[in-house]
Each structure stands twice: as structure tokens, then as C-alpha cells.
């Protein structure tokens, strides 16, 4: 998802290929018929009002002083906002985020936590900290160009990540980064999964890319995050499948071909193993759920 593709121009204070500064999100274009998968890191602070949005197939409510954090691979569906809703935030490209994360390396534990808890309730001083850096970054980004502007922005973001990292530790159990070969291999595996589409379902494929054996890769994954490599691949496949099966503009055969399944029969068995129902039944259940939600409105 190119995040600016789904946000009205009036909601963007600044954008380039690294960072987007958002000033208002209540003008997001309707994408209800076609869920999107985030390709950028997104951080949005609600400063007033309330909004509901579906994140990874779960309805979430964003209230005042709530921080929404989405990482790449997050499935986002349109929701509802009240008239008083207002928020601000920014989006960072994966490439830029990797540069900035040299000082606060990404961890599977925090990613898994944010998958389940994308909205954090901040204290007033934490909100003030976010807004201070947000306003400072915005002012520097929209200022006239000068020779050291990029270095200045990088330094501000690093400072923000250092300081806000400490604030997030109150909400998320963030362990210190371990700069060893096992962590490096694991992070490279996750990067491959994030960057590939359609995703290969074989552990051997990723192991070959990383110049290790499938058995060793799975052992490293199990040691670091408690899941073997196959389980992690399945987790990512479920994200792609949920997004595609929710898209009414794609037929089941088209999805099967897009994800490189050899046959519709094999695709159907794979989906049933993951979700407990066939692709057709999955879509029927979605339609039924949608009808029930409309009745409750």
C-alpha cells in the first residue's frame, strides 16, 4: 500500500519517499470493498473524538490519547469516525525505518504484541512528547531546503525513537537488542517474508536464500520467538489470504493463481487447514457477518 494513495491531499502536510506527515485522517478514502495491506510503518495519535477501524480482521476503537501503530503486513479496512475526530502522525517507509532502527532494532516480541494490540493508551505526558516531536519534525520538513536538512531530520527521528522507545517500554515488554548471528539470521528471514509477494511456502526456499539448512533456520526461529520457520510462514500467508479473500473483485481462481498454488483443489485444502472452512465458505461467512453488522447499526 502506498499510504498516500488512500489519504486525501488535504490530510498530508508533507510527503516524500521516506516520510509522510499526516495532519488529519478523517478524510481517508473508502476502501471497505477492498482491504489494504500496509507497506509503511504508521503511527497515529488521536487528539480528539473517536474512530473505529478494522485492523487485522478485528474492530478497534481509537479514542483521545490513543496511539495507533501499524507495521508493514498489517491489514487495514475502513471504519467510521465521529465529527469531532482529529489526529496527527506520520508514516515511514520500510527502507527508511531500517536505517532508523539501527539504534532500536525491531523485535518479534514487540511485533507480535502490536499485532494483538495495535492501539496503546498513552498518558498525558507521553502524548505531549509525541506532539512535541511531531510538530518539530513537521516544521523542519516543510522549511526551506538547506544542505544539512536530511541529516537534521534523521537526527530528530533518532532522538524521537530513543525517547519514545523508553515510553513504549511501559506498554510493551521490549528486551534489549542482541547483536549476534542468530538474531541477524532471524531478522533477515523476517525481512525476506516482508519483502516477498507472493510468498513461498517452503522453509527450504528461505533457508537457501540465507545459506543455511531448513533445520537450522527453524531451530533459530524456535529459539528466538518460540515458533518454527513453518509456523511463521503460515502466519504471513494467513495475512495475504485474509486480504485477498475479502476482496470481492478477485475470484477464488484468481487468488489461487496469484499466490502460485498448483491447483484449486490444493488451494482449497490449504485454506481449510488454516481457517477451518473452504475459500467459498470463508467468503460466505464474511457476507453473513457484514449483514449482521448492518442490522445492528
From TrEMBL:
Keywords: DNA-binding, Transcription, Transcription regulation. The keyword Hydrolase does not apply. The keyword Transcription regulation applies. It holds the Pfam family HTH_18. SUPFAM superfamilies: Homeodomain-like. InterPro entries: Homeodomain-like_sf (IPR009057), HTH_AraC (IPR018060). Residues 187-285 form the HTH araC/xylS-type domain. This is Helix-turn-helix domain-containing protein. The lineage of its organism: Bacteria, Pseudomonadati, Bacteroidota, Bacteroidia, Bacteroidales.
Amino acid at each position: 500500500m502506498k499510504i498516500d494513495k488512500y489519504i486525501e491531499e488535504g490530510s498530508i502536510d508533507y510527503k516524500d519517499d521516506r516520510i509522510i506527515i499526516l495532519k488529519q485522517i478523517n478524510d481517508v478514502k473508502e476502501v471497505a470493498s477492498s482491504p489494504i495491506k500496509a507497506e509503511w510503518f504508521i503511527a497515529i495519535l488521536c487528539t480528539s473524538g473517536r474512530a473505529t477501524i478494522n485492523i487485522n480482521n478485528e474492530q478497534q476503537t481509537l479514542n483521545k490519547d490513543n496511539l495507533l501503530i501499524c507495521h508493514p503486513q498489517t491489514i487495514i479496512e475502513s471504519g467510521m469516525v465521529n465529527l469531532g475526530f482529529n489526529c496527527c502522525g506520520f508514516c515511514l517507509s520500510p527502507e527508511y525505518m531500517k536505517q532508523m532502527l539501527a539504534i532500536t532494532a525491531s523485535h518479534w516480541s514487540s511485533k507480535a504484541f502490536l499485532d494483538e494490540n495495535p492501539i496503546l493508551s498513552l498518558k498525558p505526558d507521553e502524548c505531549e512528547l509525541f506532539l512535541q516531536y511531531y510538530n518539530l519534525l513537521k516544521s523542519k520538513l516543510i522549511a526551506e531546503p538547506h544542505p544539512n536538512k536530511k541529516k537534521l531530520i534523521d537526527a530528530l527521528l533518532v532522538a524521537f525513537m530513543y525517547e519514545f522507545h523508553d515510553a513504549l517500554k511501559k506498554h510493551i515488554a521490549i528486551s534489549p537488542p542482541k547483536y549476534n548471528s542468530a538474531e541477524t539470521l532471524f531478522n533477515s528471514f523476517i525481512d525476506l517474508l516482508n519483502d516477498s509477494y507472493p510468498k513461498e511456502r517452503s522453509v527450504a526456499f528461505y533457508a537457501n536464500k540465507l545459506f543455511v539448512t531448513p533445520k537450522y533456520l527453524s531451530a533459530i526461529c524456535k529459539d528466538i520467538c518460540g515458533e518454527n520457520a513453518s509456523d511463521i510462514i503460515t502466519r504471513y500467508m494467513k495475512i495475504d489470504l485474509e486480504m485477498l479473500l475479502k476482496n470481492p473483485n478477485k475470484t477464488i481462481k484468481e487468488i489461487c493463481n496469484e499466490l502460485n498454488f498448483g491447483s484449486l483443489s490444493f488451494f482449497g485444502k490449504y485454506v481449510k487447514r488454516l481457517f477451518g472452512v473452504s475459500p467459498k465458505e470463508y467468503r460466505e461467512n464474511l457476507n453473513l457477518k457484514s449483514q449482521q453488522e448492518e442490522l445492528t447499526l
